[in-house]
Amino acid sequence: MEKVSLSIQNGQPVVTSRQITDDFGKEHSKVIRSIETIIESNSSQNWLQYFIPSEYKDNSGKSNKEYLLTRNGFSLLVMGFTGAKALQWKLKYIEAFNKMEDALRRGNPSLTIKEVVQMIKETRSIMKEQGSSPSEIAIVVKDICEQFNIKLPDCFVKPEETTLNDVYDMIDFIFELPKNKRKDSTYDDYVVSRTINLKLLNRGD
């Protein structure tokens, strides 16, 4: 069974209705229908705290409806999903939401570097499918990094100046530091470190 894939939307972890469809072995149209049935059941409820309307583009470039689900939205939707496989996925999602919410709440990179990078990739992929511009994606990625005390330069919002690979290098640098020094590290520290490493490589040390 694969790991749960969550992304960040408005500072909170979310999962797409398509991802739930794949994990729980459902039809996306039926999942959408279930979500909208919940929404229609109480028009006075602020459902944006549960289900965030979104779109994605399929291989033909056509825009299609989907929803981003917060923890509460996920819980409401899968409440009626039964079976051993469904139970395993529910437990995995609960654990994933707990872990990410805890990391965001503490403002601490308690997730592993691999998990942070995966979160960035998932968020970037969703935004690309929604038709977001490179600059819009860069701003959100920068915000995610800052929530984990990974400070990226302002020029990161200009993709031609800073690439996504640069971001991964910066994340590597942050996670190599002792935990008590991660919060105060800066982009300049990263540049100095990278320069020293390049000099050592050129010298053959």
Can you put this structure into words, describing what you see?
Helices cover 57% and strands 11% of the residues. The protein is an alpha+beta fold and 205 residues long. The protein folds into 2 domains: 7-106, no CATH class; 131-203, no CATH class. Strands 1-2-4-3 form a 4-stranded antiparallel β-sheet, with helices on both faces. α5 (113-129) runs antiparallel to α6. The longest helix is centred in the middle third of the chain and has 23 residues, at 84-106. InterPro entries: Phage_regulatory_Rha. It comes from Clostridium botulinum. This is Rha family transcriptional regulator.
N/C terminus separation: 43 Å
Number of strands: 4
Secondary-structure content class: alpha+beta
Mean pLDDT: 76
Number of domains: 2
Order of helices and strands: EEHHEEHHHHHHH
Biggest sheet, spatial arrangement of strands? 1-2-4-3
Q: Given the structure, what is the number of helices?
A: 9
Helix and strand layout, with pairings?
Blueprint: E1 7-9, E2 12-16, H1 17-24, H2 28-40, E3 51-57, E4 63-69, H3 71-78, H4 84-106, H5 113-129, H6 134-147, H7 164-176, H8 179-182, H9 187-203
Antiparallel strand pairs: 1-2, 2-4, 3-4
Helix pairs in contact: 5-6
Organism: Clostridium botulinum
Protein name: Rha family transcriptional regulator
